[in-house]
Amino acid sequence: MTSAPTSAGVKPIHLKFDDNSLLPLLFGAHDQHLARIEQQLGVVLTSRGNRLVISSGSLWSADVARTALNSLYERLKGGMAVDAGEVDAAVRLASSAVAKGAGGQTDEGDGDQVTIRTRKRLITPRSPIQAAYIRALRGHGLTFGLGPAGTGKTYLAVATAVSMLISEEVDRIVLSRPAVEAGERLGFLPGDLRDKIDPYLRPLYDALHDTMSADQVMKRLQTGEIEVAPLAFMRGRTLSNAFVILDEAQNTTPMQMKMSLTRLGENSRMAVTADMSQIDLPQGVRSGMEDALELLKGVEGVAFVEFTDADVVRHPLVTRVVRAYDAREAANAPPDSSAKKS
With bands split at pLDDT 50, 70 and 90, how would you rate the model's confidence at 196? Predict the structure, then answer.
């Protein structure tokens, strides 16, 4: 990570906002959004009527603050909400834009290319990698999203699929994940087949309900426009005019991965998500995701998007937890492990 440039005598930056009615939403209750930006960037923000002065800090941090605030203001003008998560997202995107010398333009300037529209909400990326992931989901037949928990891999894939279903770009959504126990033995589960597999598929249902009303989810499940099924049910099928999502793919075997990837039919696309730090396969069984990474890199029409702990958009503690585990893993890794991975 490159350090931000510093400057001893940075001139204050003055921002003027035309719509005073949006300022309480921009600044947050008791100016909590401004305080959040100050804390993250080391700047001082002072409001004077419809003007905001950015002072102190480095030239880089002041530029990032200016870009983030302008982005949040444009978001409010577009009728979208701003909360603490959106403030953090704006800072991340602005940091990337300033580092690239993008003239104060963030990835949100790509408009519809990185905006997911569903009937329940409008979803925008919260990091540059999320923006790249959305573009990949729309522009490639097969997209692999890899990274730690909380980076939006599954959520954005489901949201993109719902958006394409609503706009009739696909006829149905197929959501699947391997039914592998995460370290514990669940034993006998009562009920019919759906009752038995629902615990494994619950994260996919959660993402659906966040992008569609409960009535719409239930209706489309009943009509078959949305299908949620364990990986074993994919065998022998050809999925045409569909958006297929294979979640938790790190828990597939190489044979299961091959079977899944070869289900794609005409006018279909697939998103495969995985967290390689959470493999729950029996010891000695190779992950199908590891196999696919070696085999498919460079294949035309296949995109790989890798998230890092910097892209975690859940509670800030999640980022710190992920980093703590990664640091211990790195410290305990054999000296030649990095060479093997490269």
Answer: low
Phi, psi of 153, deg, nearest 5: -60, -55
Calculate the CA dihedral of residues 244, 147, 124, 94 and round it to 10 degrees.
-150
Q: Which residue has the tokens 């408009």?
A: 111
For residue 186, which of 250, 280, 252, 256 has the smallest C-alpha distance?
A: 280
Spatial distance between the Cα atoms of 109 and 97, rounded to a whole number of angstroms: 11
How far apart are alpha carbons 159 and 273 in whole angstroms? 14
**Cβ(158)–Cβ(271) under 8 Å?**
no
Which is higher by pLDDT, 156 or 186? 156
Contact between residue 36 and residue 55 where contact means Cβ atoms under 8 Å apart: no
Cα(172)–Cα(161) distance, integer angstroms: 9
In terms of phi and psi (left: phi > 0; alpha: psi -120 to 50; beta: otherwise), the region of 148 is beta
Model pTM above 0.85:
no
Which helix (H) or strand (E) is 273 found in, with range? strand 269-274
CA angle, 306 as apex, 305 and 309 as ends, to 5°? Answer: 145
Whether residue 52 contacts residue 69, with contact meaning beta carbons closer than 8 Å, is answered with yes
| Angstrom distance (rounded) from CA 211 to CA 183 | 30
**Are 176 and 233 spatial neighbours (Cβ–Cβ below 8 Å)?**
yes
What are the φ and ψ backbone dihedral angles of 304, each rounded to 5 degrees?
A: -120, 125
d(CA 94, CA 326): 26
Q: Which amino acid is residue 329, in one-letter code?
A: E
- The CA distance from 272 to 257, in Å, is 10
Q: Measuring CA to CA, which residue among 120, 116, 117, 121 is closest to residue 213? A: 120
